[in-house]
UniProtKB/TrEMBL annotation:
PANTHER family: DYNACTIN SUBUNIT P25, GAMMA CARBONIC ANHYDRASE-LIKE 1, MITOCHONDRIAL-RELATED. InterPro entries: Hexapep, LbH_gamma_CA-like, Transf_Hexapept/Carb_Anhydrase. This is Gamma carbonic anhydrase family protein. Pfam families: Hexapep. Signal peptide: none annotated. It comes from Erythrobacter ani.
Length: 188
């Protein structure tokens, strides 16, 4: 599928696989062993670089403007490596950096937050804006972590979880509008 203004770069025999219903905004670069699921969106000027290992992005997940996604390969002493695995219905805020971690379904990464190798963001859990989840830390489901380094703050309320679900729905609909706008602009 043609995606105007998007850099899609095969490397090491691996070509990004992007579902036909996913929106990838102009200015984004998708490299190597990447899979992006149905209804997901990669917003303006994101870099998704799987040149050394794999990146998997589930369905209806959004990665907002300027975010950087990367991973680390298997190596001696770390045969599993640090792939980047992002589940379904995940929100990744603007200018976030997620590197070799796992974000479970409905997880949330706040604006400018960092999640490092082998860390895990639980189901319905939120890493606050500007927080840094250090290597190997595991956030429990339905919790809020904040700070540098991030530490558990509290359990999330039903209202907070509902707000995250609304955010997923908003980005899903907004991506459709942006896809039409990009097409109508005739970007090449």
């Amino acid at each position: 599928m043609y995606r105007p203004g998007v850099n899609i770069i095969p490397i090491h025999g691996k070509t990004p696989r992007i579902h036909e219903t996913a929106f990838v905004a102009p200015g984004s670069t998708i490299i190597g062993d990447v899979e992006i699921g149905a209804g997901s969106s990669i917003w303006y000027n994101c870099v998704v670089r799987a040149d050394v290992f794999k990146i998997r992005i589930g369905e209806r997940t959004n990665v907002q403007d300027g975010s950087v996604l990367h991973c680390d390969p298997p190596r001696p002493g770390d045969e599993e490596g640090s792939p980047l695995i992002i589940g379904d219905d995940v929100l990744v805020g603007h200018m976030a950096m997620v590197h070799g971690c796992t974000i479970l379904d409905r997880g949330f990464v706040g604006l400018g937050a960092i999640a490092m190798n082998k860390s895990v963001i639980g189901h319905d859990a939120m890493l606050a804006a500007g927080a840094m989840l250090t290597e190997g830390k595991v956030m429990e489901d339905r919790t809020l972590w904040a700070g540098r380094p991030a530490k558990p703050m509290r359990e999330l309320t039903e209202a907070a979880i509902a707000g995250m679900k609304m955010g997923v729905a908003h980005y899903s609909e907004n991506a459709k509008a942006h896809a039409i706008a990009v097409f109508e602009c005739g970007l090449d």
